Amino acid sequence: MKSSEDTHYLKGQLQWLMFFRVLVATFFFGIATVAQLRRSESYVTTHLVYLYALTGSAFVLTFIYAFILPYVRRFVLFAYVQITADVFFVTALLFITGGINSIFSFLYSISIISASICLFISGGLFAATAASCLYAGLLILQQYNIITPLHIGAFTATGYEDVRLMYPIVINVAAFYMVAVLSSFLTEQARKSRQQLQRKQIALDQLEALNEKIIQHIPSGLLTLDQFRRIITFNRAAQDITGCTFDTAYMKDVDVIFPGISSAGDASSSPATGMFFPTDFELSFIRQDGRSLLLGFSGSSIKDSANEEIGTILTFQDLTDFREMQEHIKRVDRLAAVGRLAAGIAHEVRNPLASISGSIQVLQKSLQLNAADTRLMDIIIRESKNLSSMISDFTQYARAEAQGKESILLKTIADEVVALFNNSAECKNACSIKQQIPETITVTANRQQIKQVLWNLILNAAQAMTVKSGTIILTAAVVQHGFEPAALKNHIPEPAAKSPIMSWVEVKIADDGCGIKKSEIGSIFDPFFTTKDTGIGLGLAIVYKIIQEHNGTIAVESQEGCGAIFTLVLPDTSPAQ
Ligand code: ADP
Fold it and tell me: For the structural domain made of 323-398, what CATH number should be given?
């Protein structure tokens, strides 16, 4: 026996052998008892006492084996001892039950089989040899009347002639060896099959573990559904993306965990059972922590060998960041295109407009005009000014490059803008502005452009007021890099290695105005998008471009009827505290 596995096997077989021995001993004890009950007192004391003694010693010996088994180190030797003892027991039984006439010589075969099972061919041949020697010895000694077997019941030892004695010996010895070879062959086969099975089981276990690892470690969310659309697999990425644990999702209907997934899946692809999902589809998902995600799903069905649908496999990814990034890039492209257009318009229109307005002013001074003509001239001059200011907007938008940057105190700028706004026609006392910006916050920026940003955002907030007593709240705080608001994270440029940005200034402009419709929120930063009768739709586009030029970013949160919060971040250049 080589490995601990073999030792374990042998130990198990020895336990079975002990159990079986107890059974056989009990059987013979039963025979002896029945015989005693049917015979006279004197007969019993003569012969049955040996049978009692034999079964008793088999019990005792087995008890001793069982007791020392936990302390045994050399199991092979222990097995040989037991097998030898068993062969002696059988010989003793034969001696008691009539020697050559005993019907119990088959018990040798049982000992040989048990030896083969425990110790394979070597054990089998050893037991067969021992049985052959003891059996032949018993018969020869009996034949020559050196020993006289005991007789029990109907068994009577009569002896044979020399030649006839050879028959039972040869036949039995041949049978012993045949049993040894055959039983060890079968045991060997059984052992090989068991080992093969074990190897296959190990390979299967490893394959299962590998599959499990692959499923758990793929970066995409993966879930499988049974035919009743219940979730049976929910890998780690799926748990991370959705925030749902496996225990929560297991055996739940997929619609419970992903509300609306059935309708998001194309109904045309699920004609009969509704089990199929289309190859690709998208689904809006709200996590328990309130974060709203856009998930991109791929579905395929699982079929059994008979090509029957037995489930569905769905993989999904969080497309939220990717989609936001796409939107951002699109917007930047659009802004660049409009910028070029604006520069062209400004160039082509501004000079002729200046000539028109200058000429009119000269004419106004040199001509003797009546009151009506003067009014008309004034209209021309005023409208030219308006047109010129609109072109300035375009130009400003086109040139929203952050030139002339200086270190500015944010609070000072905000104070100026708020004061200007409170005294402007746009305010009309329709709202009050609360400004809570710490004194120390500074940003390195173009003063005029930052003023423009605050002005545009405050103006929009005031224009969104539906009630007279609306309030605009202006706040600012410093946030460490990595702790920016989630909505902004994807747009914040990575800090350059040379001058790493450790913190950001986060400015919020919140109002309790009409809010923005969900369908419009994605377009408000686009140039020329406006919902106002007199709006041009450049205010937020300018803000967006300026902030971008300052290596910052801006986002909006709003619900229709519940106001809006514009949040922008700029690199923090406040002196260290
Ligand atoms: P304009 O003010 O000329 O319309 P903007 O680019 O400044 O152009 O704004 C675009 C649109 O965004 C507005 O027409 C309005 O619908 C929406 N908007 C901007 N700010 C707010 C706000 N604070 N509340 C509600 N809607 C807003």
Answer: 1.10.287
What are the distances in angstroms from CA 81 to CA 115, 123, 179, 557?
11, 11, 20, 87
Q: Which of 87-91, 142-146, 245-249, 507-511 has the lowest mean pLDDT?
A: 142-146
Q: Is this structure's pTM higher than 0.90?
A: no
Instruction: Dump pLDDT digits (tens) for 95-124.
Output: 887 777 777 888 899 899 999 988 889 999
Which residue is closest in CA terms to ligand 1's atom 18? 460
The residue whose C-alpha atom lies closest to atom 7 belonging to ligand 1 is: 539
* 363, pLDDT greater than 70: yes
Every domain of the chain and the residues it spans: 4-197, 221-318, 323-398, 406-571
Q: What is the CATH number of domain 221-318?
A: 3.30.450.20
Same fold, 221-318 and 323-398: no
Which of helix, strand or coil describes residue 496?
coil
Position 360 pLDDT exceeds 50: yes
Supply φ then ψ for residue 480, to 5 degrees: -75, 150
Cβ of residue 529 lying under 6 Å from some atom of ligand 1: yes
Q: List the structure tokens of 274.
A: 């509704």
Burial class (CB in 10 A: 0-12, 13-18, 19+), 278: middle
Instruction: Identify the pLDDT of residue 400.
Output: 55
Closest Cα to atom 4 of ligand 1 = 530
